[in-house]
Specification:
single chain; alpha+beta; Jelly Rolls; Arc Repressor Mutant, subunit A; 2 domains; four-stranded antiparallel β-sheet; 11 helices; 11 strands; HTH_AraC
Length: 267
Amino acid sequence: METFNPFLTTSLHVTEAGYTKVGPSWSHLATFFPYYRMYYITKGAAKMFMHDETLELTPDRLYFIPAFSITGAECPREMEHFWMHFNLDITTISYLTIYKPALFVEAQPLDKELFRLVRENFDAADDGAHAPNTLACQSLAKYLFSRFLPSGNVSSESANFIPVLEYIDRHLNSNISNTDLCNIMCLNETYFSNVFTKQFGISPKQYILQKRIGSAARMLVETDKTVKEIAFEFGYDNEMYFNRIFHKITGSAPGKYRKNFRAKDKL
């Protein structure tokens, strides 16, 4: 069966990076985080709860937390860690939907220094320094991210869905019908819905809904647009209905979600 590896063209953009000491105040209830994250723990320990899995955050490991995951954390004492938040290109996001990366890998001797350099170059670039700082930051982060990726290729059968997933990501603020999607794969609507649900565990409609709310969540964090403006941008004329759907998926009302994620205790 034909295979390929789209990770060869991955584009990664670091949005924040730092080094933080946290304690019991870092513990929080389940939250819907809008960015991908990587952690390198230097001291102490904590736990992160994601779906039905518990991650033990300890030194000598790197951790990857997917964007838009419902996560909770518990830090009974102190923990120190390097961290970064980042976005990925649409093709990579689509591929991660098909083939899940590892959530942790064993640290290598240079990893602490690499995280330090990501932070250093991010701070320099953020202060308006030359482009080499931005390039160094993104390149180092991309290498660290690559450590979590599957070593093999994906089958062409699974890869057939990538154009569909890319189409969804590019048209989240438009009406997307099953007809649009099944035409991409040249399948009838019933068969397309069945194979999509089998591949991803949810229907195309539910997948689109989750992606829309995820993008709306990121917009709440990154912009000062009103909830009504954001709702309208993603096709919701009724703000109350948007609020209800947003709360159902994220566990929080849009206004409260924005307030929580503009605090700095969720790193």
